[in-house]
């Protein structure tokens, strides 16, 4: 597991600082002004130390030289660890809490913009439980991150919460991505409900991002069933309306289905619904359950061993594939899938929360297997084995 957060003690700033990481001195004064120096030693001993946006060090506050501990110099000291911070990473330093959060890693294919903690659904298996508070500061943090990336990535995700709740803030982010990273393939996770509103959809599509796709969940072909899973009355109708409105303007969409005890009984019915009513979807992702967030308190209602739903999964995949729809299986190790489904399995778990078990060490299929979520340690199949 790759750490994305470290904690320390902050001094000298009252607003979040977004900056690139510098592990070695920057020669260019312009680049110094957009970076935080990261060191295990004395920040003040770096050449031109005062020209950086701030500093992060493992040293305790009483060990810092006075020149750097001054309140005029933003500093996070006494950090738990800085080993995971690399030159070129983009981080945000939080005042008061002393959190240093990595928000972009140039050596990863799993970068994303975290849009908001707010959501208008309350899904039983939500991996990022919503928080109803003003976090509009995330818009500025994301805008600054986009501008600080040296080389645009091939892929970038947008997630939340529900990104569309940012309204104009989301449009600003998409516009900035279009300007700074026009060739980056952007994939935004959204419940799709706000796209039922013509005025929002028109404004969203007017940005005209050339490489944007939307991942939208549909959990059942039966409206009350979907609404129960997302804990929002009327959500199914809004989502389907939104999907059709987006299709009218040729906006690429992916349908996502999380597999658990509530979605599996109607999985084949849902596959048939998708083919008949959402044939414009460029891709369908059938996804394993991540045991985190709201899944933990709802585990007994949701958990089913993936080994026990091989038949239902195979029928749904076969149905969609035979009708020419692109379909993939996400978040499943190969040992829990019938071999007929291996060609549909993808390495989909983000590198910062991906793991393999002891049983995987001698597995001949490991190179092609996506492994497990770190959270799988809370509940896992009894059928995991080397292949």
Can you describe this structure?
With 387 residues, the protein is an alpha/beta fold. It has 2 domains: 5-100, 3-Layer(bba) Sandwich (Glucose Oxidase, domain 1), CATH 3.50.30.10; 112-377, Aldolase class I (TIM Barrel, Alpha-Beta Barrel). Helix content is 24%, strand content 19%. It has helices at residues 29-32, 66-69, 137-148, 168-180, 198-206, 223-230, 235-248, 267-277, 299-302, 310-322; strands at residues 5-7, 9-11, 17-22, 35-39, 54-57, 75-77, 90-93, 99-104, 112-114, 155-159, 185-189, 212-217, 253-258, 283-287, 327-330, 354-355, 372-373. The strands form 3 sheets. The protein has an 8-stranded mixed beta sheet with strand order 1-8-7-3-4-5-6-2. A 7-stranded parallel beta sheet has the order 9-10-11-12-13-14-15, covered by helices on one side. A two-stranded antiparallel sheet has the order 16-17. β3, α1 and β4 form a beta-alpha-beta unit. α8 runs parallel beside α10 (310-322). The two termini are 23 Å apart. The model has no long low-confidence stretch (mean pLDDT 94).
């Amino acid at each position: 597991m790759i750490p994305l957060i470290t904690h320390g003690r902050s001094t000298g700033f009252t607003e979040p600082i977004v900056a690139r990481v510098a592990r070695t001195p920057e020669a260019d004064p312009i680049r110094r002004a957009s970076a935080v120096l990261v060191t295990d030693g004395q920040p003040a001993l770096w050449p031109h130390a005062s020209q950086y946006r701030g500093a992060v060090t493992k040293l305790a506050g009483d060990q810092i030289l006075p020149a750097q501990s001054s309140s005029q110099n933003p500093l996070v000291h006494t950090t738990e660890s800085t080993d995971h911070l690399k030159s070129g990473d983009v981080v945000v330093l939080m005042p008061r809490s002393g959190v240093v959060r990595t928000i972009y890693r140039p050596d990863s294919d799993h970068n994303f913009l975290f849009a908001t903690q707010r959501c208008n659904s309350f899904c039983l298996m939500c991996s990022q439980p919503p928080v109803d508070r003003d976090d509009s500061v995330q818009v500025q943090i994301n805008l600054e991150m986009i501008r600080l990336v040296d080389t645009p990535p091939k892929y970038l995700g947008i997630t939340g919460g529900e990104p569309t709740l940012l309204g104009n803030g989301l449009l600003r982010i998409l516009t900035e991505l279009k300007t700074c990273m026009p060739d980056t393939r952007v994939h935004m996770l959204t419940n799709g409900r706000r796209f039922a509103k013509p005025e929002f959809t028109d404004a969203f599509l007017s940005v005209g991002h050339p490489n944007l796709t939307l991942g939208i969940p549909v959990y059942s072909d039966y409206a009350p069933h979907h609404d129960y899973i997302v804990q929002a009355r009327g959500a199914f109708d809004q989502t389907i309306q939104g999907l059709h409105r987006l299709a009218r303007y040729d906006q690429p969409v992916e349908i996502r289905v999380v597999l658990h005890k509530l979605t599996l009984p109607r999985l084949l019915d849902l596959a048939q619904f998708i083919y008949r009513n959402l044939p414009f979807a460029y891709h369908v992702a059938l996804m394993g359950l991540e045991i985190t967030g709201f899944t933990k308190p709802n585990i007994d209602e949701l958990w089913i061993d993936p080994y026990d739903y091989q038949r239902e999964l195979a029928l749904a995949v076969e149905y969609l594939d035979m009708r020419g729809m692109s379909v993939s299986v996400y978040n499943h190790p190969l040992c829990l899938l019938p071999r007929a489904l291996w060609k549909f399995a993808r390495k989909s778990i983000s590198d910062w929360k991906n793991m393999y078990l002891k049983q995987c060490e001698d597995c001949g299929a490991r190179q092609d297997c996506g492994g497990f979520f770190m959270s799988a340690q809370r509940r896992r199949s009894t059928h995991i084995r080397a292949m």
